[in-house]
Specification:
alpha/beta; pyruvate-formate lyase- activating enzyme; 3 domains; 5-stranded mixed barrel; 12 helices; 22% strand; globular; binds S-adenosyl-L-homocysteine; binds iron/sulfur cluster; binds FE3-S4 cluster
Length: 438
């Protein structure tokens, strides 16, 4: 066994875990290869919605058919779906040789090395939601050389009634500030220009420890490290987002003016049923506070339509909230029942066709709002951090503004990792086009 391939599904935390696994495998002497040449395929999976799982399962089926003929590739199944249904999946698919929950990544590289046809399938499940055997590796072998994620909290304690995350990622646990700062220092020294601090709820950082460091002070310490050009963070929870974060952001120009603040619904009754811990009024006043502290901020959100019992009128409240706030981006999703969560057994599950219609309607609205908000950028001069090729664009590259807007310009690899001054010439729903200004 010496060639591996890795595929990442799901959120930024999985990207971070995938980059760390890749780095650890390379350290252990493995080579990364295209999947049709790989001895081992590592799948970093997601359980957030049924669709995310179905996709991964169908990929496993595909590898399994090849494995039955050629005895390769062996599948190493990690991430949230591995924790949720890994045992059942392994029963069905003999190619799955190793299964590990998100809190047992530390054991994965060694287990991959020990895979053989004769040894049984191995399971490293997170049976204790507080235990942690993490991978102590700085993700230096990343998909993007200039940008890196750093997880600052594991797990989540909020138990929103629709959400599987607390069941698959375990309880909230903050990493020590020393470990985080040492990692961000190594990354900056290795040429990383932009770091995104990650947590399901970054604002809860330190709240699990007596006298723990607050998120705002962690943010300040990371932003003061030499070498870094930009600092981002995600995700913020409206219930835990404290004003001291805004003070640090106002004080430090390198912290990006972009806040992902998931609202999930505009209806107070649904928010209560979701166990979100705030009302739409409280959410709106937080948005106002953020916008008055940081006038140039971009605010993005997540929204679920078709939560059990959501009436047309309650859906309309979400619709109206989007119209009122005018978010820069809204990540919309149709509610997907997750076994074991409270909402999955609630009465009034909504028909898929209604969910799809609501999703269409809300996406159409948001698409207009986003275009209008992007159009306000036309003619403006901004600084972007160039970070890669534009998708599909022939020879064009892209970068992001401080407010996380994508700007597409002429350029090549030599621009990557650099700050470039641009003037925005055109706006669309999801990106801007620009030209250099010296
Ligand atoms: N911690 C973040 C979000 C994590 S999950 C927060 O508190 O918002 C990412 C997004 O997936 C959520 O914001 C939610 O909009 C969506 N999501 C989670 N569970 C879902 C479900 N069962 N059905 C549909 N969407 C879901
Ligand atoms: Fe899920 Fe809620 Fe935790 Fe976000 S805060 S991860 S939605 S339980
Ligand atoms: Fe998916 Fe797990 Fe992230 S369920 S969204 S990969 S925390």
């Amino acid at each position: 066994m010496h060639r591996f391939s890795i595929r990442v599904f799901g959120c930024q935390m999985n990207s971070y875990d995938g980059d760390r696994l890749r780095t650890a495998m390379l350290h252990n002497g493995w080579k990364e290869s295209p999947e049709d040449e790989a001895d081992v395929v590592i799948l970093v999976t997601c359980s957030i919605r049924a669709k995310a799982e179905q996709k991964a399962v169908s990929e496993i089926g595909r590898y399994d058919a090849i494995y039955r003929r050629k005895k390769a590739p062996a599948v190493v199944l990690v991430g949230c779906m591995a924790q949720r249904t890994g045992r059942e999946i392994a029963k069905k698919f003999p190619s799955v040789r190793v299964v590990a929950g998100p809190r047992h990544l530390g054991l994965v590289p060694q287990a991959a090395t020990e895979i053989s046809e004769k040894t049984p399938q191995r399971f490293f499940m997170d049976d204790d939601p507080r235990a942690l055997t993490d991978l102590e590796v700085v993700p230096t072998a990343r998909t993007n050389p200039f940008k890196a994620y750093v997880t600052i909290t594991y797990g989540c304690d909020r138990f929103c009634s629709y959400c599987i995350v607390p069941y698959v990622r375990g309880r909230l646990q903050s990493r020590s500030p020393e470990a985080i700062l040492s990692e961000t220092r190594t990354l900056a020294e290795g040429g990383v220009k932009e770091i995104t601090l990650l947590g399901q709820n970054v604002d809860a950082y330190g709240k699990d420890m007596d006298g723990g460091t607050r998120f705002s002070s962690l943010l300040r310490s990371v932003s003061e490290q030499p070498g870094l050009i930009r600092l981002r963070f995600a995700t913020s929870h409206p219930k835990d987002f404290d004003e001291d974060i805004l003070e640090v952001m106002a004080e430090k120009p390198d912290i990006c003016r972009a806040i992902n603040l998931p609202v999930q619904s505009g209806s107070d009754r649904i928010l209560r049923e979701m166990n979100r811990g705030y009302t739409s009024g409280q959410y709106l006043s937080l948005v106002e506070k953020i916008r008055s502290a940081l006038p140039d901020v971009s605010i993005t959100t997540d929204l679920i339509v078709g939560f059990p019992g959501e009436t047309d009128a309650e859906f309309r409240e979400s619709y109206d909230l989007l119209k009122e706030v005018k978010f820069d981006i809204v990540h919309t999703a149709a509610y997907s029942p997750r076994e074991g969560t409270r909402a999955a057994v609630m009465e009034g599950q909504i028909d898929n066709r209604i969910k799809a219609a609501r999703l269409n309607e809300i996406n159409a609205l948001q698409s207009e709002i986003a275009r209008a908000s992007n159009e306000e950028y036309t003619g403006r001069e901004l600084e972007i951090l160039a970070d890669g090729f534009a998708p599909k664009g022939t020879g064009k590259i892209q970068g992001r503004t401080m407010t996380d807007k994508v700007v597409i310009i002429e350029g090549d690899e030599r621009d990557f990792g650099r700050l470039i001054n641009v003037r925005v010439t055109r706006a669309s729903h999801w990106s801007l086009e620009g030209e250099r200004t010296g």
